[in-house]
């Protein structure tokens, strides 16, 4: 990847890709939930919701962020960046951030959230990354891998673009998440989850822990820490029902791995 002043280059690259009709080439049978995430109306609602909701702001996000190393002057990839809530924090912590997502409206939102302070990349994480070998010190990939078909390809690509001792932090549905129905852990399959407050159904891949663990280990990503987070006290004020559910159930899991 050619490094240029943050923001500029990628805005250009991103518009070029959008012009090339990227959206119409998406394979929606593999790239799950694309139609939701590429909907500008959904993106707006999602961005507003995760700012201070129980599920993200007061449960998953603080746990995942706690697994990152000090970020000053590091090159960090925010893979599946969404509307940029975390990219913004990474920039504030002094990192040079590349934000990747398969949704153009999510990247637009990330550019706006960070004041164009990141390099944006329109990238389906089901495809090889258009990024150089050993170009990142850390990768942050929150709540994304359950939309990606081939976890081995994704983690081998993450390992390729990480520098030695680089850190990959990811979070995903807990393998024992009670809201995922019809579990058949012996084979890869996906199920639909209702996001009632957004009036959408999301399709996600369900994976048993051993499949996630294998994809890490087979690609030289040593698992250092696994968190089963508890909601923060703020979640109780924001959304007592979500707080009660998250206090009792294993909903997301957060993992820190190091490239060996
Ligand atoms: C639940 S959101 C999480 C956003 C962000 N990581 C956060 O924690 O706030 C999932 C994000 O992953 C992106 N995504 C899902 N599947 C993807 C794929 N195959 N390639 C690239 N991005 C993907 C979606 O567009 C969305 O922005």
Task: Describe the protein in words.
Residues 77-170 form the Methyltransferase type domain. GO terms for molecular function: S-adenosylmethionine-dependent methyltransferase activity. Keywords: Methyltransferase, Transferase. It holds the Pfam family Methyltransf_11. It comes from Pedobacter yulinensis. The protein has 260 residues and is of the alpha/beta class. The chain has one domain: Vaccinia Virus protein VP39 (Rossmann fold, 3-Layer(aba) Sandwich), CATH 3.40.50. The chain contains eleven helices and nine strands. It has helices at 8-19, 22-25, 34-37, 40-51, 56-65, 85-92, 104-113, 151-161, 209-217, 233-238, 240-248, and strands spanning 75-79, 96-101, 119-122, 136-142, 162-173, 189-195, 200-206, 221-227, 252-259. The strands form two sheets. It has a seven-stranded mixed sheet with strand order 3-2-1-4-5-9-8, with helices on both faces. Strand 2 (96-101), helix 7 (104-113) and strand 3 form a beta-alpha-beta unit. The chain is globular. The site of S-adenosylmethionine has 20 residues, from helix 6. Residues 31, 37, 50, 80-82, 85-86, 101-103, 106, 124-126, 142-144, 147-148 line the site of S-adenosylmethionine (SAM).
Number of domains: 1
Strand line-up across the major sheet? 3-2-1-4-5-9-8
CATH superfamily: Vaccinia Virus protein VP39
N-to-C terminal Cα separation, in Å?
23 Å
Give start-end ranges of low-pLDDT stretches. Answer: 1-9
- Evaluate the radius of gyration: 17 Å
Shape: globular
- Total count of helical runs of at least 4 residues: 11
CATH class: Alpha Beta
Bound molecules: S-adenosylmethionine
Main sheet overview: 7 strands, mixed
Helical/strand content category: alpha/beta
**Helicity, in percent?**
25-40%
Write down the CATH topology: Rossmann fold
Oligomerization category of the chains in this entry: single chain
How many strand elements?
9
Organism: Pedobacter yulinensis
Domain Methyltransferase type: 77-170
GO molecular function, one term: S-adenosylmethionine-dependent methyltransferase activity
Keywords: Methyltransferase, Transferase
């Amino acid at each position: 990847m050619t490094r240029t002043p943050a923001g500029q280059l990628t805005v250009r690259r991103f518009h070029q890709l959008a012009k090339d009709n990227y959206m119409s080439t998406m394979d929606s049978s593999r790239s799950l939930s694309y139609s939701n995430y590429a909907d500008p109306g959904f993106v707006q609602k999602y961005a507003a919701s995760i700012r201070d909701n129980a599920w993200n702001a007061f449960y998953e996000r603080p746990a995942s962020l706690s697994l990152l190393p000090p970020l000053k002057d590091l090159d960090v990839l925010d893979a599946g960046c969404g509307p940029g809530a975390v990219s913004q924090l990474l920039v504030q912590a002094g990192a040079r951030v590349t934000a990747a997502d398969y949704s153009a409206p999510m990247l637009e939102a990330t550019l706006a959230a960070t004041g164009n302070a990141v390099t944006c990349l329109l990238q389906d994480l089901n495809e090889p990354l258009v990024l150089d070998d050993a170009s990142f010190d850390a990768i942050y990939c929150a709540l994304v891998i359950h939309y990606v078909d081939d976890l081995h390809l994704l983690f081998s690509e993450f390992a390729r673009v990480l520098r030695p001792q680089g850190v990959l932090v990811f979070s995903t549905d807990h393998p024992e998440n009670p809201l995922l129905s019809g579990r058949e852990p012996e084979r890869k399959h996906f199920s639909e989850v209702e996001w009632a407050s957004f009036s959408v159904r999301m399709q996600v891949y369900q994976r048993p822990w051993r499949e996630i663990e294998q994809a890490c280990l087979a690609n030289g990503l040593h698992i250092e820490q696994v968190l089963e987070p508890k909601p923060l006290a703020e979640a109780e004020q924001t959304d007592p029902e979500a707080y009660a559910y998250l206090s009792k159930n294993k909903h997301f899991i957060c993992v820190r791995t190091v490239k060996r």
